[in-house]
Amino acid sequence: MADAPIIEGTGLVRDFPSHGRVLRAVRGIDISVRQGVTLGIVGESGCGKSTLARLLLGLTRPTAGEIRVLGQPQSTLGRRGLARIVQPVFQDPAAALNPAQRIGDIIRLPLDVHAIGIRSERRARVAALMQQVGLAPEMASRLPHELSGGQRQRVAIARALIAEPRLLVCDEPTSALDVSVQAQILNLLQDLQRDLGLGMVLISHNLGVVEHLAERVIIMYLGRVVESGPARSTLRQPRHPYTDRLRRAVLSPVPGGGLPADEADDVFPDPHNPPSGCAFHPRCANRSDRCLREDPALMPIGDGAVACHHPLTAPSAQRQEHASA
What whole-number distance in Å separates Cα of residue 202 and Cα of residue 173? Predict the structure, then answer.
């Protein structure tokens, strides 16, 4: 496994004009992804996950901060140069595929754009990759609407891989699919990542999916990373109260396990007007006066990091609220 990261972002900030104000969607994030490693990104809708993905893909530029790809500034690579290294797999395969193009043409397109190989080599590469992602080669003549949702996502994955990139950025790659095929696509991504030595960024609401596929995870809240670390230990034994709340909101698969607690005051804040101090403090049972005043920095803790004045140390059922600092 290479020591140098495939992609590395430092101090990333992304602002958008919104209703006469500035919406800061990403707030000073550092991120690094190495070859053969899957990084999970978790957080509620509106926390900045997809904006961060677009920054990594070069689809939008950071307002501040820097992204380096294989050690080079992302901005110097150009669109084609970056596309040879970093490729997306989007949420909705139906929207990601040209409805008027045949499947084989869709998958082959990056080879044409980058002038990779001669025509016969491109056809052979398309057929081989279709088999690798679980598509029969005779499907190459079909149109996207003739395929199921799971098959369309396999086409999107094949197109992303055809030019042999180093990194896949997968933004909710199974949320638009039937539950019955989600596991198949996730297992396919896991197999491809292992067999091809890819780096992968996996954005998902599903904590179980991230724990299963990712080696490391970052937890985002209101545009910031509030916790990071090894996926399994971070999601099972969280140190940040927000990560713990996400974990407790997961529906138990055990029959009779009941529903997650209904926390009526659990409302995502207005991103145009974030709370003072720690942005999570209005929703946090552990908050103190210090949390209202001071925004905690992301600090190393164990083999991860947490941005919290009162990081959790005990099982959630035994936790007590902190006294005012």
Answer: 8
**Tell me, what's the pLDDT at 317?**
38
Which structure tokens are listed for 58? 């070069």
Amino acid at 266: D
Residue 258: the pLDDT is 54
| DSSP state string for 148-201 | -HHHHHHHHHHHHHTT--SEEEEESTTTTS-HHHHHHHHHHHHHHHHHHT-EEE
Q: Which region holds residue 211: left if phi is over 0, alpha if psi is between -120 and 50, else beta?
A: alpha
Main-chain phi, psi angles of 271, to 5 degrees: -65, -20
List of residues 6+ apart from 304 with CB closer than 8 A? 227, 228, 229, 230, 233, 234, 239
Computed on alpha carbons and rounded to an integer, the radius of gyration of the chain in Å comes to 21
With bands split at pLDDT 50, 70 and 90, how would you rate the model's confidence at 252?
low
The pTM (predicted TM-score) of the whole model is: 0.89
**Tokens, residue 9:** 């972002």
CB 304 within 8 A of CB 295: no
Percent of the chain's residues with pLDDT above 70: 90
Which amino acid does the sequence have at 26?
A: V
